Every structure is written in structure tokens, then in C-alpha cells.
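Researcher: I'd like a candidate sequence for this fold, 438 residues long. If you have to choose between options at a position, lean toward the conservative one.
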């Protein structure tokens, strides 16, 4: 039971937040944090919390990995900022080399470092338009690509962009190819062919393929609810893009760096994108992101059209490089598989044991989620119960976050370095809360 001091301190922090911070900055979980390590956060009053949110997918390598902390400290003592456009420095190039080695895009790959996933998306679109000399971009229903203007235009959920228009022109949206083998009468290949045919018809009724610069897709949707694109669809999409001269952009901001059991979700598909965007877990929490792409496409951008004062900051580069090296040392991809197997087994147990409130389980690797529903009906989302589960878990020492168009998806983005007993403890808390609400 929380002490009066704990409650008072937490209330004080949220009162200050309300006084100082715009209301539009959402509260995704009613917790506080003073410091953290591994998969544990310690709140403002010293209470330990098991972290199943991972800073919204940022902490695959855990909170404050010692090697990353040391790299930040050492780099900060040498050089904090010069701007890469003003004076070249080695940490930027070292990180670019490392990214190219683990995430090659064909015969030759180039890298542009930026500060956030949204910024990476903005620049990927600019590069694609310049490379193709075409204006249009196609995105998917349920997709989330950020809150800057182009990224917000690409983002599907209207709650994230209410009152912010007019939006960027020449953005078109098609349905995401969500495939559920248990419910579909079509095979995956036939379903993929059907969806690709819909896209071809879209080119006749909405925008000509000759005017489309790029198609951008999350292979596993993040905010959209962890829907996974079928392999057959992505392979057929690659063929279609090649035939039509359209660039294929994979948004891997949340799905990268071990989350799906591989460095990239695209490795599950045997497909290489033309351009890709990265952020979140590539830096253990520092603001760093990247656009990567085939060298000839990246070089199509006119000098001066991409860049930024802080892009590829030396301290952030050092943190990212140390993060990736630490991930290599602990075999982050194997950990992604291990954590994913444990979580999927438990989620499927939830689905079987509590079918009146737990719906579809989906995801890839350790990027997993389930729907909270009413009366065992997948068409009846239960956002109210979802929030109750989240808040009760928080009170019992487990931090989780939600997702989905209807706010009824519970997703797991715990650090992949989480100790096995801690992972099971967190899942036990979650199951106990679920069982109390059947």
C-alpha cells in the first residue's frame, strides 16, 4: 500500500505538470520515475516499477546500460556540438558505418542522421520526391509516422492531428493489409494478391502510379495496434513498386533493433526497402534517428534540402554506437526471440482463459499486443476496461501502455534485456488484474 508521502509526492508532480505543461501532451500511464536501470523504474518515492513500456519502444537495451552511460560521459567531455555541416567528426561516421554493416540496403547504402522518427520520415519523403521527381505519397490506415506536418499527414488516427490542418497535399491512404489466418478464408498469398489488386485499382481511381514517389508502411504497426503485414503482401508490393518506379519506404522506428527478433523487421520478409527510417531503440533514449537508403537514391537529394543544426549530435552518436555494440554483445536479436516467445505464450493463454474480454493476439517477435473486448466479440472494443487494467497494473508496480484506433490494445515493449523472472512477475501481475475483471 502506498504511503501518504508517496501519494503526496506523485500528486505534487502531476500538479506541477498541469501548471507548467500544455494539456495536449498526453498521459499514457499514471506513473512517475526518478531513476531507472535495466527493466526497473524507481518512482519519485522509491517504489520499484516493472517497465513493460520501454519508453514507448525506446529501451530494447534497457534503462541506462553502463557502457552507454560511459560513452555519453566521455563524449560530452570531448565535444558536445559543432554541427556536422560545419566540422566533420568521427563519431557520426563511425555510427554510419555500423548502421550500414547491420542494415544494408543493397550494394551501397548511405545514412543521414537526424533527431527523431518524425524527422526521419520528413526527410525520407523529401528524398523520395527528389529521386523520382514525383509528388504523391501513399500511406496506410492505422499507420503512425509522427507529429510534424508531413509525418502527421501520413499518420492515420485523427485524434493525433485534430485541429492541425490543412495537411500536406498529395498524401493518399489505403487500407492496411491486416491478415488473420484464423478468420480469413483466403490463403495468405491469395489475400496478398487481392490487396495488391486493390492498390492497382487505387491507381486508377485516386492517383496515377506515375505520380507516386513512394509508398511508406510499417511492417508492424505501432500505435495502430501491432498489426503485422503478411510476407506475401510485402513481396508483391516490392514487385509492384519496382514495376511502377515507386520507392518503397519501411518505417522501422518502433520495430527495429531486436524488437522483432532481428535488427530489422524487413529481414523477416526477404525484401530490401529503397529507404527506411529508424529511431527509438537505436540510442537508449537520446534523441537520435536515421534515414537510410540505397546510395543512388540518397544522393538524389539536392544539397541544402536535408540536414539540421543538431542532426547527428556527437553525444547522441556516441550513445547510439555504444548501444548497438552492447546489443551485439548481449545478442539482442536472440533476446527478442526469447522474450517474444514467453510473452506470446502467456498472451495466448490469456485469450484462451479469458475469452470474454481478451480478443486477438498479434505481433512479431517481442512486439506483441492483444485486444480488450466486450462479451467475447472482437467487433466490440473495450477502451474503458483497457484503461482500468493499465491503471490497476500501475498501482501494483507494472507499467504498461495502450494502443489502437479504439484505445483497446495492450502492448508490450519491455526492455529485451529484462531478467526472465522479472518478465514472469510482470505477466503475473497483468494476468491477476485481467482475471479480476472477467
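Model: Candidate sequence:
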Amino acid at each position: 500500500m502506498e504511503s501518504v508521502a508517496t501519494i503526496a509526492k506523485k500528486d505534487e508532480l502531476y500538479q506541477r505538470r498541469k501548471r507548467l505543461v500544455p494539456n495536449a501532451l498526453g498521459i499514457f500511464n499514471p506513473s512517475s520515475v526518478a531513476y531507472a536501470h535495466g527493466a526497473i523504474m524507481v518512482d519519485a518515492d522509491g517504489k520499484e516499477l516493472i517497465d513493460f513500456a520501454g519508453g514507448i519502444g525506446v529501451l530494447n537495451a534497457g534503462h541506462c546500460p553502463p557502457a552507454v552511460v560511459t560513452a555519453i560521459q566521455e563524449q560530452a567531455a570531448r565535444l558536445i556540438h559543432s554541427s556536422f555541416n560545419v566540422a566533420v567528426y568521427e563519431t557520426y561516421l563511425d555510427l554510419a558505418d555500423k548502421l550500414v554493416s547491420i542494415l544494408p540496403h543493397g550494394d551501397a547504402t548511405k545514412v543521414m542522421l537526424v533527431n527523431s522518427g518524425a524527422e526521419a520520415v520528413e526527410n525520407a519523403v523529401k528524398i523520395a520526391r527528389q529521386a523520382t521527381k514525383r509528388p504523391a505519397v501513399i500511406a496506410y490506415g492505422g499507420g503512425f509516422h509522427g507529429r510534424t506536418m508531413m509525418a502527421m499527414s501520413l499518420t492515420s488516427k485523427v485524434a493525433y492531428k485534430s485541429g492541425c490542418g490543412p495537411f500536406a497535399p498529395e498524401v493518399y491512404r489505403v487500407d492496411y493489409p491486416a491478415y488473420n489466418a484464423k478468420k480469413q478464408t483466403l490463403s495468405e498469398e491469395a489475400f496478398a494478391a487481392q490487396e495488391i489488386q486493390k492498390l492497382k485499382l487505387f491507381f486508377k481511381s485516386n492517383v496515377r502510379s506515375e505520380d507516386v514517389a513512394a509508398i511508406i508502411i510499417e511492417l508492424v504497426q505501432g500505435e495502430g495496434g501491432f498489426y503485422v503485414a503478411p510476407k506475401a503482401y510485402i513481396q508483391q508490393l516490392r514487385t509492384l513498386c519496382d514495376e511502377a518506379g515507386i520507392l518503397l519506404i519501411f518505417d522501422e522506428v518502433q520495430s527495429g533493433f531486436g524488437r522483432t527478433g532481428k535488427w530489422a523487421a524487413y529481414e523477416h520478409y526477404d525484401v530490401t526497402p529503397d529507404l527506411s527510417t529508424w529511431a527509438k531503440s537505436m540510442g537508449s533514449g537520446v534523441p537520435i534517428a536515421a534515414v537510410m537508403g540505397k546510395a543512388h537514391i540518397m544522393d538524389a537529394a539536392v544539397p541544402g534540402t536535408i540536414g539540421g543544426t543538431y542532426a547527428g549530435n556527437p553525444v547522441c552518436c556516441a550513445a547510439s554506437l555504444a548501444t548497438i555494440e552492447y546489443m551485439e554483445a548481449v545478442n539482442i536479436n536472440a533476446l527478442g526471440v526469447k522474450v517474444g516467445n514467453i510473452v506470446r505464450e502467456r498472451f495466448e493463454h490469456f485469450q484462451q482463459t479469458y475469452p470474454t474480454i481478451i480478443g486477438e493476439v498479434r505481433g512479431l517477435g517481442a512486439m506483441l499486443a492483444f485486444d480488450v473486448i466486450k462479451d467475447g466479440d472482437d467487433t466490440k472494443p473495450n477502451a474503458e476496461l483497457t484503461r482500468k487494467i493499465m491503471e490497476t497494473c500501475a498501482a501494483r508496480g507494472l507499467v504498461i501502455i495502450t494502443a489502437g484506433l479504439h484505445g483497446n490494445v495492450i502492448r508490450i515493449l519491455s526492455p529485451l534485456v529484462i531478467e526472465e523472472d522479472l518478465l514472469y512477475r510482470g505477466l503475473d501481475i497483468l494476468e491477476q488484474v485481467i482475471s479480476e475483471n472477467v
